[in-house]
Every structure is written in structure tokens, then in C-alpha cells.
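task queued by scheduler; priority normal; single chain, no ligands, no partner chains; default sampling; output format set to C-alpha cells
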Amino acid sequence: MTKKIFKSIMAVCTVVLVLGLAFVMGILYRYFGRQISTELEKEASYVAQGVELSGVEYLEKLNGKNARITLIDQDGSVLYDSQAEASSMENHGDREEVEEAAETGKGEAVRMSETLSEKTIYYALRLEDGRILRVSSTQYSVLALVYQLIVPVLWILLLMIILSGAFAFRLSKKVVEPVNNLDLEHPEENEVYEEVAPLLSRMYKQNKEIKNQIDTARRHQEEFSIITENMQEGLVVIDRYTMILSGNSSVWKLFHVNGPKNGESVYVLNRSEEFQSIIDKALDGKHNEAVLKVDGSDIHVIANPVMREEQVEGAVLLLVNITEKLEREKLRREFSANVSHELKTPLTSISGFAEIIQDGYVKEEDVRAFAGRIYKEAQRLITLVEDVLRISQLDEGEVPYEWTETDLYQTAKNVFGTLSEAAKKQDVHLYIEGDRVQLHTVPNILEEVLFNLCDNAIKYNKPGGNVCICLTENEESVCISVKDNGVGIPKEDQSRVFERFYRVDKSHSKEIGGTGLGLSIVKHGVSFLGGEVELESAPEQGTEVSVKFPKE
């Protein structure tokens, strides 16, 4: 902007300078012309007096030092000329100044030489005897005058150009400085030229609109980032060249890689042929999905193309870890199969014994024994159904509950009271260690957890064995431990004892009437209450199951 203003000022100064010089030269030219005419008139008067007194001899003495002097006879012939041979000159009777002088007594004329670019001024005066005395002088033209003055004019021009440049630079800087110092962030607060005020007003409105748009875009971006970063599912956006444009942290966790930078290929996540096939299909404009195996996990990949004007610009990948889902489905299938098997066994026994009695193949004295077998299998069936329903309720969170402050010592006494008869039959002694501990929990669920732990400890114990409930607490948690010195659990089975229908010794379990769901109910119950379960066991040495609950 400064350069443009500088150039404009310099152009104006140059035009003004040239026009000014031309004007001055014109004025000087006219002034010198008048001056010459005046001088010629005076000189003609002096010379005329001399000619009338002394004749032509007076003219010869002058020799035309200052001006050209010509004496013309009445018939127009030249009698004398200070710069040429009079006899060789043509008749001057038709000259404008000569004719005028012959008529009026004096005459003037100006003639231009086209070849010499010179202007000649003539002044004629009629003598008393009728002859004409003419005095003339040459005035150089404007071009000639300029040529004569070219050196000083050039110096003047140079000086004026320098002065104009300095003036233009200072003026342009002064003009632009307030504009350069404008506060564009707050246009309305500037005090500058009135001519700029409408522009500043528009800038203020545009800045306000831009700020609002940026704030809206930033807010949307933050909302989108919050949503995507809190997604358990992975989300990746790629361009048509497979380069990552954006992605959330879940993606990097699913593929166990450090977060790739934008611009890296999506194949840094996984280089398998199946993954490449998913990407290729998406970039071909086809929706597709598949399940990838990544470090033992099952990742469900859903790929959708991004279209713009019927052209594929990229793709969006949604990644979901379905390992747990598949495991749950597998467990459900196994659970259904186990439930079917466990239900079928007592039902088959009940149906078989009933059929034998119905067909009359049982003696009268054996009917009671058969009825007892039927009753035992029916009770086993009822227990199994109740356990299945209990686990289902815990899985779905449908257990009616009320959180209250519970005395764990009293709860332990209640459980031992219920199991006292079973303990006597197995010759197992029951103990409680620890003081009265309070816990904010669901009493019926906690009691059921303890019941199943103690029931297992009694069933899988030795005659004369012990079962102890230990109650401890610290600042952060409450711990309930159930210890026994029974048969113990082999190390290879310890990781699976909390699975549904899993039995360490299937034959022994059948003898003591276990359903294989006791420890599974414990696991689900403790998880429902927000606790953790730990197991330590050694064959023929006993088992300890610890349940820890955090304090609120």
C-alpha cells in the first residue's frame, strides 16, 4: 500500500513539475518577446535620428552590432542591410511591417523560421523623406530556449525529484502508518480517517461473524472429541489413499499400538490380508464388515465408504471388541447344554422310578424306597432350578435388594446356624474369628455368598475337619475369609472352579448332591456387591476363599 501511495504522489509531483516548468518557460518566452519589441522600438528611434542627420554613413558605422538594420527605399528596394549585400536582396515593399510603416509611420511584424525554429521580430519606422528604417532581432523558440537551459533545468529537475521523493515517502508513510497500526481484532476501537470508518465497521461485523463461526466449530469439535474419546468402540477416518485423518484412543488400544500420527497409513494398525481386503472394498465404495483376530481378541470391523458427488473420498472404520460377547455366547451355549443335561438326569430318574411303580414291578415293601429316590431326585431338581434362576437374576441385575448397614459377625452366625446339621453329619467343626464388623451391603445376597462358600467347605471336607469364617477390616476395605482343611483343589482346576457347572470331582459331587453352581453364584453375588474374590488352595491341605469389599 505504501508503494502505491508513493508512486501516486511521485506521479502527481512529476506532472505538476513538468507543467510548472512549461508554464514558466511560456511566461519567460512571452516576457522576452515583449522586451525585444520594446528594445527594437527604442533602437529604431535612435537609429532614425542618426540616419536623418548623417545619412547611410551613420548605418555603416553602427555595423548592426545589436540588431539587424535594413534601410528600404520608397519603392521597396533595399538601400542598406547590416547583415547582407543590399543589391542582392529582393524587394521588401510587400513586407507586412514595411507596408504598415509606409501607411501609418511605424509597423511591427513577427515571422517564424520553420527551418531554424527561430522567431524574428521586425520593427519598421518611416523617415521624413519616406524611406523605411527597419530594425529586427531573432528570438529563439521554446525548444531552443529549453536547449540552452537544459543543464540548469536538469539540475533543478533532479533536485525537485529528490525533494518530491522525500516528500512522497514521508507523506505516504504518514498516510499509511495509522492504517498499519489498526487493531484488526477490535476495529471499532480505532480512531482513524473518517473514510476508513465504513471499512472498519464491516471488518467488525465480519470479525464477529468469523469468531462466532470459529466458536461454533470449536465447540462442535470438542463435543465430537469428547464423544469419540469416551467411546469404547474404535473410530478411524481415512482418505482415499488409506492415510489416517483422525482416530480415537480406543483404536490404538484395540490394536495394541501407539497412536499413529495423522498422515500415516491405516495399515500400521494391522497388515493382515483380511484387513487390507476390508479397506480395499470400502475404498471401492462397498460397505463390508469382518471379524479380525488381534492378539487373541476378536475385533469386529465395520467399514463404510465416504462419498462426495458420487466419488469415494475415503472411509470410516468402526471397530468393536466382541471377544467378551463371543465368550458370553459360548458360555450361554455351554450353560444351556449343562442345564439341559443336569435337568435331564434327575427327570430321567424320577420318570424311570415312577414308571416301574406304575407298571407294578415293585414289591409293596420296596415302594417306600423307590418313593424316597423319587423325592431325592425331585429335591435335587428343585435345588438346580433355584440355583439357575439365582444366577440368571444376578446376571440381569433383577435381584430385589436394599442396601443397609449389616453386622457381618451376626451374618456369619446365621449361616453357621443353617449349616450346623450338615456339619454334624460330616463331623466338621465351625468357627468364627474376628470382631463385629459393619458393612454397607445387601444382607440377603451377602448371606447367600457366605452360605455357598461354607456349604462347599463342609461338603468337601474330611471327618474331624474345620471350617472358619475370619472377619477383618482396614481403612479401605472389609475382608471375609472362609478357610477349611479339607480335600483342597488341584492347581490346574483353581482357575475354573467359578465357572458354571464345573466340578473338580464329578463322581464325588454327585454323591454329595452338588449342582456345580455354588461358586458361580458366589462370583456373581460378590461382583453384584462390588467386591473381589480370591482363592488359595492345595490338595489335601485345604482351601481359603477371601472376599474383599471396599468401604464407602
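post-processing summary
- Residues 2-54 form the longest helix (53 residues).
- Residues 231-316 form a domain with the Beta-Lactamase fold (CATH 3.30.450.20).
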